Predict the structure.
Amino acid sequence: MTALTASPRAATSAPSRTRRRSRLLGLAAAELSLLRRNRMQLGTAIVLPLALPFFFLPLARQGATPDALAGVLGTMFVIVLLFVVYYNLLSTFVARRQELVLKRLRTGEASDATVLAATAAPALLLATVMITIMAVLSILLLDLPLPQNPVALVLGLSLGAATLVPLALVTANITRTVESAQVTSLPAMGILMIGAGGILPAEILPEWAARLITALPSAPITELVRLGWLGIGADGTPVFGAEAWTTVAGQAAILLGWALLGILIVREHFRWEPRG
């Protein structure tokens, strides 16, 4: 009797999950088609990751060791995530809101989470492809070894990308037009670049400021890239075994905390209506 009474519920939930998945994939496919038509966004998302390894090639030719390039690696990946995920999605969310696309989709059967996830999916897919290509180019051009801890590397980049999605949604709340996204994105991008070590080296900052920077979302991404690729910590010393996984857990917790905070803000305050 227990099996008989439980089976209708299971039969009902399975089609429901299938419909949700079908809606998500359908909306994501439509968004991907729109992204392919936007030559400016697509061009930036493709050209930038391909160009960055060449930009840092002079450092490798001057004899910089992989340890010396460790900070550069983290900065490169943060730059790609900022432009391919954060700025791309900020422009996309603002455009879809102002064109009433988000409002129309919200009145359909898809949930709010499905609509936002489907809109973000193409940018995340593109980021995955371009980061993979950039990693291969970095190995070939910068004479870098293969990643020492691929799990830490993938975890840092995946959580970093996921954290930037709600940040793009939060920034969209204060962005009236796609053109104004160039201005409203600057504070977040500047702060995150500082966290990645791309503007101010932590060594020249006061101790309190250096500690504050380590709590920014971009700092854990850089740390996990450095640890995952070269197996070293921020001071350049090798990190192995339990110490490595403790570091991974701590940095991942920072990223998850930022992602959760962003999701809560978006859930309560995201603007679905066009800004006046």
Observations:
- Residues 35-269 form one domain.
- The two ends are 59 Å apart (CA to CA).
- The first helix runs from residue 2 to 37.
- Confidence is low (pLDDT under 50) at residues 1-7.
